[in-house]
Amino acid sequence: MNETSVRRLLDGVLDVLDARAGHGGSPVPEPAAVLARIAAAATRLTRASHGAFVLVPSTAADQGGEGYTDVVTVGLGANPAEPVWSRERTTAGKGPSEAKPERLLVSGSATNGAGHPLPGGFPATTSVLRMPVYVEDTLFGQLLLADKLSGGDHDGADERGFTEHDEDAVAGLVTAMAPLIGMASAYGKVELRLRWLTAAQEITGVLLRGDDPAAALRLIAERARIVSGSAVGAIARPDERADQLVFDVVATEGPVPADASGLSVSVRGTATGQAFTTGEPVLVRDYGTLAATYQSGWSGATMPDLVTALDSAIAVPLTVGDLPVGVLLVARGHGTVPFDADDVQLVRMFASQAALALEFGRAEQDRHKLAVFENRERIAHDLHDLVIQRLFAVGLGLEGLGKLTTDAKAGALVSGFVHDLDRTIKDIRNSIFSLQHPVEAPGGVRADLLRLCLGLRGTLGFEPRLSFDGPLDTAIPAAMRADLLAVVDKALTHAARRAEATAATVEVVVDRAGRTLTTTVADNGAAHPGERAGQDGEIAELEVLAADWDGTFSIGGVPGAGTGLTWTVRLPRHDARTQGGHA
């Protein structure tokens, strides 16, 4: 290599090192910038018309030798000075990157079909120079140069093609730049890992602030989609029987199609189910086609277009300890670079941290609930030990005072006050029960009725007043409980249909002997004629439910209130219905 070649080589090295500029003072430039600079420097060094840096293909373990390779070209396109990135398919060593490329110097005739694979965007060439690039004895890619330009003094070389001097100069450039390529590549991997860690920290912060867990799940799916460069990010959670997984959280670049949310897949025979049952990540290709085929045979359903367009996918379990709580799925569309083993590890790390954050968030919610329950318990004890006792003492005093008076009118007034105090004590006791039994917790008849009434607030536009009397939880069998809840549900639903109804009361009473259950639902609206005549289908069902238990049912006007419904049935005593229900 003569002095001119050495000078050009040094100029090329300096050009590449200038890639540090414009990166905010970072000691290591972006990997893409380094590769583009090397390709551009090599074209100038050899007077090539255009060049390319072709990376080693990324091929996942299950892809059967088929994968994609990244290619950066210079000297082509609308603006030859700008590098152009593309991704091209490679199969079994064919394509723009061979498994073990060697130096290649061809002059005179070399085209895309002449046995020297070139990137798809390259035009037919008259000369080709190929130089493999190794970083720490590992093949990183290859540098391709094509069509040496004629004219100018270039060490007396033949202007129609590349020379051995060009080959030596490019080899020197590649050798000098190998450490920088390695640093930039490592920097890119570290930066990607940092993006995953940043996303995980954001989710942890959201959950520890006590934000809505549903919003946190959406954030997990969205961040996983963005950082992984996927078309779709989704979270599937098991149903009550844990034999199906429901994709109730789906994130896409645009609005989520209505038919894409809420999809159910089996835990058996699917990639998502395999990740959930084994606790290990699953990497698949052509996910959309596989999912559509399986779903068609399993449930006969048709997968939405959003799913069928997916190709490479990673399903990673969301696990807390040894307990799987769901699956995180990220999937890319056809024509994009598929995931590889490094991607799987990064998604798995993110999923582990996200699952732990979800568990911490749930624990924080439980702590808040416990604080609320403790406060409710204190209030309930105060109401019972102080307020009820004082009201009871006042009631006894009034009852004694009523016996002392000889004025019949005054005695009737005092008796009325005592009755009102008695009802007030019952209402307070109902409130104490509501405080001590949270709506979401399972319980007896009282808890079920409370949960039902609170659940109908949105339909009614108000909260019905609920009162109990008698041993409801011990006297009412399980089969009758279901009918009782159905009666109250249908009665309040009918009250909601009356535009003039603005208040309702529900009274459920078991007599002291434990023989009769009486349920009264009253509201301040007027029943339509069909209801009172028994012509309404649902009202007729209540009459049948009463007859099943040897009871009675009536509906009519309530003086000063509006419409009242009374359902009275006999409580069974140790007969077959208490064990197995009724026909």
Order of strands, widest sheet = 3-2-1-6-5-4
Query: How many individual domains?
Result: 3
Summarize the main sheet: 6 strands, antiparallel
| Mean pLDDT rating | 76
What is the CATH homologous superfamily assignment of the largest domain? GAF domain
Name given to the CATH architecture of the largest domain: 2-Layer Sandwich
Give the beta-strand count: 17
Look at the structure and give the CATH class of the largest domain.
Alpha Beta
C-alpha geometry: elongated
Give the SSE map.
Blueprint: H1 3-17, H2 31-46, E1 48-55, E2 66-74, E3 84-91, E4 104-110, E5 125-135, E6 138-148, H3 164-208, H4 213-228, E7 232-238, E8 244-252, E9 263-266, H5 271-278, E10 282-284, H6 287-298, H7 305-308, E11 310-320, E12 323-333, H8 341-404, H9 408-436, H10 445-455, H11 457-460, E13 465-469, H12 472-475, H13 478-497, E14 504-510, E15 516-523, H14 529-532, H15 537-548, E16 552-558, E17 562-570, H16 576-580
Parallel strand pairs: 13-14
Antiparallel strand pairs: 1-2, 1-6, 2-3, 4-5, 5-6, 7-8, 7-12, 8-9, 10-11, 11-12, 14-15, 15-17, 16-17
